[in-house]
Every structure is written in structure tokens, then in C-alpha cells.
Amino acid sequence: MKRNKLLSLLGLTATSALVLAACGSDDGETANSGNQTSGSGEEQVLNLIESAELPNMDSAKSTDTVSGTVLNNVNEGLYRQNPENKLELGMAAEEPEVSEDGLTFTFKIREDAVWSNGDPVTANDFVFAWQRLADPETAAEYSYMIDGVVKNASAILTGEMEPSELGATAVDDKTLEVQLETAKPYFKDLLTLPMFLPQNEAFVTEQGGDYATNSDTVLYNGPFVLDEWDGTGLSWVLNKNEEYWDTEAVALETINVDVVKETSTAINLYDTGAVDRITLSGEYVQTKQGDSDLKTQPTSSVFYFKFNQERDGAETPLANENIRKAIAMAFDKQAFADTVLQNGSIPANGLVPEALAADPASGEDFRAQSGDLLTYNVEEAQKYFEEGLNELGVDSLTLEILGDDTENAKRSLEFMQAQLTTNLPGLEINLRNVPFKIRLDADTNQDYDIEMAGWGADYADPINFLELFHSENGNNKSSYANSEYDALVESAQTNVSDLEGRWEDMLEAEKILMETGGIAPIYQRAYSVLEKDYVKDLTSHLTGAEYSYKWASIEGKE
Q1: How far is the C-alpha of 479 from the C-alpha of 434, rounded, in Å?
Q2: What's the whole-number average pLDDT of the chain?
Q3: Buried b (16+ CB within 10 A) or exposed e, 466-486
Q4: N or C: which end of the chain has fewer CB within 10 A?
Q5: Lowest pLDDT segment from 3-7, 173-177, 395-399
Q6: What is the mean pLDDT of residues 117-144?
């Protein structure tokens, strides 16, 4: 599908959805011309949509799933996840040498690894990127991922040491030595993530403040390169990177991506052959029951309400624990999943998702072991709300819920508004639906009362969720603070000699977070997906980036 054709269809479907839904015909023009794999007669073009803008391409500062997916496909770290969700070598030429104490890793960088401008990928590219991540001047929200992991990162983050003292050293151009603060069972998993990707120091320095603001101000060392992204994130293109060391394994020549926020529009584009894969929710899932293209895709993402306890330097009503707990228990999660989402998502009564990690001793799933900690209970919610109002010295409250501006997000917030105002007399809820990038900015600046937010696992360990609400975590952005919770999280971050004790610390930490109403868990997401049968080997991941396109191809398209 030529991009101008797709954009034309986007405009058409926005105004003529009913007509297109009735026609449902394929216009036959579903691929860019001239993009064919060697030896194949099929055009290797994949057309996708996203429900949110691409907000950021700086791997040190990216925190969202849209950026994470793009970065995963245009760049590559020391490792990447394969289609079986196992680690495979990326920029690392071989498995590292590991010291006897498990604290020093020595990596060899591929000799044939180059950036999209022709520069070789070097050990210093990793050193520079990781120093930048740890540098407090970068203000990277994901800096906590290196904190307590790479030697001296903690002291650098607090300003006690210089970034140059980080325990990552370029022994020579192709030899990277990494010293850990303590042994980490998930260290290699971290190396697939955006914040641990390399960056070319000379290029980043040359770009200055313009770095990563559009597709021309970023370098690429992965399977694809990013094109036609102007920084607004409304559309972009991934083109095959002919300089990638494993380019022969990459079949796709072009991936076109456009932001479409209305599911009805997405369905029309799919039915007319303009796009090859979409996600569904709500009543739209039911309209596609029996369609052979319909699939369910599980995820590790948990969505919840964040309660902002401090806004513009002043304490908010949500600093009151009883008010938080009242809201957390006052909406019917099962009804929300059944009537609004309708996509296989399930209610969440804790922060850590199902099927993420198992007890090292018993093998029991964390979620099953921890149980249902914060459930729907109107009677209890009303008691907490009355107590909270009395403590605040008021008889009513007006609060605002912040969410995205997609069709599904709007319906979700409307459901929550009706539930909360009905079940908690005296509570008025206003809604603020904004573009994804603006919501992220509002979160960063703590410019919200209640925010509908979510988190997908970076790696398969409960601490990846629990550390989010440590009082000093860069992603907290709600001023939640509990000293007992902090101590348990810190213990779990550093204690790798007693794995069962570490597990118990994490169970207790989640219990405290729920008992204090730190957040209000809502649901664990699943996707209902429509995918054309000619799309092969598009890989989804339960942890880290949601998708990899390296192994995807178009086969059997008529």
C-alpha cells in the first residue's frame, strides 16, 4: 500500500465508516511498488497501525511501549529476544567471559556491526550510552534500571561520582568490560532493553538538542531504519537496513505505520486491505467472532489508577489513604473487562501479572501465591470514603481522571466515571483525554489527579513491577512513599544469595502497596488481534519490547 493511498483511506474512513463497513471490499492496492525480496515474487511490505503517537526515539529517555517497539526494531543491544522469547546474540559476537564471582562480564562486539552512517559499532558506544543513562543531568526516568546493577551507577546518580567512573569500560574498540555491583540473575535480559542500547557519541554530540527529535537525527544499527518520522509521531516508516550484520535474515523491505485511534476506522482499513494487522476491543471483538483472522495474544501488561499525592507542590486529597482505597474498591473490574474491553483481558487485584514469574522453591506463580489483594467491594469502599472525607474535613470531592484520547480509552474512563460517582456518593469525576505524548508529559510533571496508566514487563521478575513505586524511582511520579515498602524493594533488588527470602520480600511488598492503596489495579491486558493469513512470523514478546519484525515476512498474498 502506497503511503499516499493509505493516508487517503484514513481520511475517507474517518468520514464514511458506515459506507466502507457495508462494502468491505479489497481495492487490490496493498503494497508499495518495487519492494521485493531477492528471489521472491512477493512484495515484502507490512502495513500496521498504532493507537498512539511515537513520542521519543532517545533510547536513554524512552519509557513507553510505542517507542520501545520501534527502538527494538531499528537498533540492537548486546542481545535480542528471538521468536521463542529466548535471548540470542545481537551486537555481542559471542557469549561473554564471566569472572568467578559473577561480577565482571567481558563482551566482544561484532566486527561486522556498523551504524547506518557507516561508522563501526564499538565498545565505547555502549560505555557512552550507559554513562549518559546514569548521568543525573540526562534525567532519564529509566535510570533506575542501571542503579545498583552496574558498578558505581548508584553513586553517579546521586552526584557522588562522575559518569566516567561507571563500571563499563572500552578495553579496546571491540571489547567491553562490565562490572556489576552485585550479581543479577536477570542481567542479560536487561541488555535487550532500550536504555541499554548503544549510542554513537560523536553523532549524539553533533546533534545536541536536536538528537532523536526526528528520523534524521538518530542512527540505527538494527534490522530496520526509521524514515518519515517528523517528531509528531503521527506516521512513520521502517525500511530494511542493508548495513545490518544479519540483513539476510530480514525479509521485509518496508513497514508502514500510521496512528489510528478509532477502532471502527482500523477495522475498515483492515477489511479493505489497507492494513495487515490490528487490535480490537469492546463490541468490535464480538463482530469478528468466527473470523479465521481473529487471534488472542496474552501480554504481561497490567493497567491501574495512579493516585497523585502531590500537585504543584501541594498535598492533594489523594494523599489520604482512605480516599485512595475507596476509589480502588469502587469499580467493577469484571464488568469492565466483560463490557468495555471484551478482548480476553482479566481483572487485576494486584500489581504483578499472572504467568510472569514462579516461586524458586515451589514453582507456584507469583500472582496465584500473592492472591487477590484489592478487590471490588462497594460497601467497604463507601466506608473508606466516608472516613477519608471526615479526615479531610469535607463532605464531597471533585477529582479528574487522565487518560489517552483513543476510542477505547475514552470508553474506559466513561465507565469508571459512572462507577465511581454512583458507588461513592459525594465524589464528582471529570475526565481528561489527551494524546499519548501529552499524557506522558502530564505524568512526568505530576499534572494530574488520577491517571489510568499501565506497565508491561521488561523482564520476567516481580521486582520489575514492584520497584516502580519505590519512593525514589523515576517512574513513580505520584509521590507514593512507604518506608517499609522501600526497604523490602531494596532488599529484593540486592539479595540474590537467598532467593526464597527475596521472594518473600516481594510478596510482602506487593501486600503493603495494596493495603495502603498505593495504586488501584484494574486489569491485565490481552489483545484480540486481526492478522492477515499472509503475515508470517511477526513475533510478540511477553517481556521487553512488544514486537519484533526481524523474522516477519509476507507469504501467499493474492
Answers
A1: 22
A2: 92
A3: bbbbbeebbbbbbbbbbeebb
A4: C
A5: 3-7
A6: 97
* 242-246 own/partner pairs: CB under 8 Å, 24+ apart: 243/114, 243/115, 243/116, 243/118, 244/76, 245/110, 245/112, 245/113, 245/114, 246/550
> What amino acid is encoded at 556 in this protein?
G
For the beta carbon of residue 164, count every other beta carbon within 10 angstroms: 10
Rounded Cα gap, residues 63 and 72, in angstroms: 13
pTM: 0.81
Q: What are the residues facing 423 on neighbouring strands?
A: none
Output the nine-digit C-alpha cell for 337: 473487562
H or E element that contains 430: strand 427-434
Q: What is the mean predicted confidence (pLDDT) over 439-446?
A: 95
> Which stretches does DSSP call E strand in 308-415?
310-311, 314-315, 346-347, 397-404
Q: Give Cα separations from 172 to 106, 122, 177, 280 (angstroms).
A: 11, 8, 10, 50
Amino acid at 351: L
Q: Return the SS3 of 178.
A: strand
Cell 535474515 locates to: 249
- Neighbouring-strand partners of residue 453: 304
User: Which residue matches cell numbers 489527579?
Assistant: 449
All cell numbers assigned to 478: 505520584
Cα separation of 168 and 358, whole Å? 31
Categorize the per-residue pLDDT at 32 as very low, low, confident or very high, splitting at 50, 70 and 90. Answer: very low
